[in-house]
Amino acid sequence: MQLNNNVTEFILLGLTQDPFRKKIVFVTFLLFYLGTLLGNLLIITTIKTSRALGSPMYFFLFHLSLSDTCFSTSIAPRTIVDALLKKTTISFSECIIQVFSLQFFGCLEIFILILMAVDRYVAICKPLHYMTIMSRRICSVLVAVAWVGSCVHSLVQIFLALRLPFCGPNEIDHYFCDLEPLLKLACTDTYVTNLLLVSNSGAICTVSFIMLMFSYIIILHSLRNHSAEGRRKALSTCISHIVVVILFFVPCIFIYTRPATTFPMDKMIAVFYTIGTPLLNPLIYTLRNAEVKNAMRKLWSKKLVSDDQFYS
Questions:
Q1: Looking at residue 4, what is its pLDDT?
Q2: Residue 11: in which H helix or E strand, if any?
Q3: Is residue 76 part of a domain?
Q4: 241: closest CA among 124, 104, 76, 101?
Q5: What is the pTM of this model?
Q6: Looking at residue 251, which CATH number applies to its domain?
Q7: Residue 127 and residue 133: Cα distance in Å, rounded?
Q8: Inter-residue contact 166 to 6 (CB < 8 Å)
């Protein structure tokens, strides 16, 4: 992996070099990461243990929470530890692994959001055929395709990174490894690689966002034929999905559609979609979803009853 490179490790400059601000970074990332773990693991546990949440929408929500947890874990723990150190280094191999994890779970989240939009479209626009089209077997196949597709996407990104020669300097002006800051350190012309990156990550983000927004416009337009109660319930679900889509895609499109140029605000925008969105997703889905909240209450009630029986 390192045969053509003089660089065996990189120095991560992080979000700041100021000791006081690094403490703020430590506290912020720690609280956000713990909140992400608590919220998403709660959703995962609730969906797995509740019979009331057996519909395809919650099957996809389970995988969304799983991808959120893994996505945040690929970045946040190391950033938390690095905030306590004066000099933060990451080996070439660890950097490549982080690029793979970031791209894999980020792409997986995109595909899962698309599947959730498809599920809502079929449920609202084709209600009589819903159970046939979105059967358990079909949903499992779709999720498997999403996992495989994400892996292929990440392998392409890794292939692009491994083709680049690095001979110094080795300072990455970021708090995690990603292709865009790595391109700036390569000892070769990266114009073609930049184009490939835009056509890969940038195109996936942009095209998926346009598809998702167009699909939700169709769904919202079709609600005019539903009853008032049906419109209210469907509108609540769709709005929560649209909020998640906007919060995740807008920062990603800003970052990955122009990798040849960087702005001072890039790192702060990256903070938003790497630790902010994974925390907001479970809050959005639980606060706006009565079925999930009821299932969580039942799960908590069962735990209290079992604890009382244990101590009695």
A1: 55
A2: strand 9-12
A3: yes
A4: 124
A5: 0.87
A6: 1.20.1070.10
A7: 10
A8: yes
